[in-house]
Amino acid sequence: MKLWGGRFEQAPTEIFERFSGSLSFDRRLLEADIRGSQAWARALERAGILTAIERERIVTSLEEILAEAAERDVFAGADDEDVHTFVIRKLGERAGDLAAKIHTGRSRNEQVSTDVRLWLRARIDETLALLADLMEALVGHGRRYGGAVIPGYTHLRRAQPVLWPHYLLAYFEMFARDAERLLEARRRTNLLPLGSGALAGSGIPIDREAIARELGFEGLTRNSMDAAADRDFLLDFLYAAALTMLHLSRLAEDWILYSSDEFGWLELADSVTSGSSLMPQKKNPDSLELIRGKCGRVFGSLSSLFVTVKGLPMTYNRDLQEDKIPLFEAVDELQASLRMARVVVDSAVLKPDLALRALEQSWAVATDLAEALARAGVAFHHAHQLVGKLVLESLRSGRTPRDWSGEQLASFAPEFTPELAALLEPVAGLRRREILGGTGPNAVAAALGAAQERLARLRR
Ligand code: ARG
Questions:
Q1: Averaged pLDDT score across all residues of the chain
Q2: Alpha-carbon gap, residue 87 to 108, rounded angstroms
Q3: Does the Cβ of 316 fall within 6 Å of ligand 1?
Q4: Probe residue for ligand 1, chosen from 17, 80, 87, 109 as the CB with the greatest number of ligand atoms within 8 Å
Q5: Pocket of ligand 1, candidates 82, 305, 320: which has the most ligand atoms within 8 Å of its Cβ, to mutate?
Q6: CB atoms within 10 A of CB 272
Q7: Chain segment 443-460, per-residue pLDDT in tens
Q8: Is 318 near ligand 1, meaning CB less than 6 Å away?
Q9: DSSP per-residue string spanning 381-417
């Protein structure tokens, strides 16, 4: 079925119909379309276009369509142009001629925007809950291994010892910012376009405020032309989604490395890894690789919509129909990746002894030593040089920090006192980093507590 045709002398070719139809994907908007149409029917009653009886019949019939869709595949064999047309045809099957009235004063341009806004608002809420689940898993893992010390890396070289929960909370911060961005996108999404007409405003005196209240929108779009043309709210969401995926991808990359034979101090659960069809010994981190891989697809969604909207003349153009495919894909991949990441985090096992061994075999304590000298009054540049010489000598003679006794240190350079040897233990230097945002044990314990509170607020 089509919602137009009067001025045409020829029917559309089958090729054009197939080319332009969107029911195959915008069927996902069915519930939103029905909720929006029910609210529109009530608005039409208030405007004196429908009687109470007519409105009731329409609202109930729409409800029945939704119930039917929950029972069976109502789209099988449907050849309607889009979901809006589908709903009106189904309404006609139940409410007869009344269906011809529902579209009074309304355009599909504002309808599709309303539907997508309703749909996306619900998906953002789900995504926020999934994000909070992952953040909780990070905090939980941090608590499980609260005292574990791992090598912190820069340039992928062992840099300084950090507490495992401190590392995990770095991702907590990234995901907390992602949550803020999603909430911001939600705020821009949660505005009602209905009443905008095709582009010029509805010709029926519709109470837009009342529709907004019914559908739970926070406010109204302020300009009918903008309402028809605007897809900024989708781009806001896609950007937030892309950045969330980017953070997931960096986490995935870390854990792929940390669980590799070369690092080896993190163990992924068997249940989230795969074997090789040829090499019997393999245990591959496919779950994490796929998160990393899907990240690229979500970036693709963002650039796809950017390119679609760029340069479109005011106001609605059919190009905009292409917004939904990248949107749906981004939502699906993001939600699936968040679910996957949470399971990977929950089930991974840290090997604190192996992490410590990696630290002990490196000179990750060098900074602690140099800073201790600086605290004792040695100019930092000089301290840096001295410790650098100590490292060089150790590398030459095949020694690790542990191989140095206090006396040996003191005889290496007069600035070194025997007590400095205590700082050759990776955990010792941590205790000097009790600065806000630092990896000192008390600072990290406080950060874990604060994270839990922030999480509770996010859940509300
Ligand atoms: N299927 C269309 C879309 O997704 C709905 C709006 C159609 N409007 C129009 N003027 N053809 O954008």
A1: 97
A2: 12
A3: yes
A4: 109
A5: 82
A6: 18
A7: 999 999 999 999 999 998
A8: yes
A9: HHHHHHHHHHHHHHHHHT--GGG--HHHHHHH-TT--
Q: 268 and 255 in contact (C-beta within 8 Å)? A: yes
Residues 6+ apart with CB under 8 A from 235: 302, 305, 306, 309
The total number of residues shown for the chain amounts to: 460
- The burial class, CB within 10 Å (0-12 / 13-18 / 19+), for 156 is exposed
Query: Which pLDDT score is estimated for 425?
Result: 95
How far, in Å, is the centroid of ligand 1 from the Cα of 12? 16
CA dist 110 to 186, 211, 252, 314, 329, Å?
18, 13, 40, 14, 23
pLDDT on residue 202: 97
- Assess whether the previous peptide bond of 417 is cis (omega < 30° from 0): no
Q: Tell which residue, 117, 126, 327, 119, has the closest CA to residue 220.
A: 117
CA of 248 to the centre of ligand 1 (A): 34
From the CA of 8, how far away is ligand 1's center (Å)?
18
Mean pLDDT within 69-97: 97
Answer whether residue 174 shows pLDDT above 90.
Answer: yes
Cis peptide leading into residue 315 (ω within 30°): yes
Q: How many CB atoms lie within 10 A of CB 30?
A: 21
Residue 6 has pLDDT above 90, yes or no: no
Q: Is the CB of 186 under 6 A from ligand 1?
A: no
* Strand bridging mode 219-220 / 191-192: parallel
For ligand 1, is residue 308 a contact (CB within 6 Å)? no
Task: Give tens-digit pLDDT for 151-160.
Answer: 999 999 999 9
Question: How many angstroms does the Cα of residue 111 sit away from the middle of ligand 1?
Answer: 9
The phi, psi pair for 372, rounded to 5°, reads -65, -40
CA nearest ligand 1 atom 3, residue: 321
> Is the CB of 115 within 6 Å of ligand 1?
no
pLDDT at 238 over 90: yes
* Upper half-sphere CA count for residue 433 (Cβ side, 13 Å): 22
Residue 384 tokens read as: 């840096």
Q: Given this model, what pLDDT does residue 1 score?
A: 80
Is 2 a residue whose pLDDT tops 90? no
> Is the separation of the CB atoms in 340 and 346 below 8 Å?
no
Residue type at 198?
A: A
Q: Is the pLDDT confidence value at 5 over 90?
A: no
Closest CA to 451 of 172, 227, 78: 172
- For residue 4, the model assigns a pLDDT of 87
Amino acid at 194: L
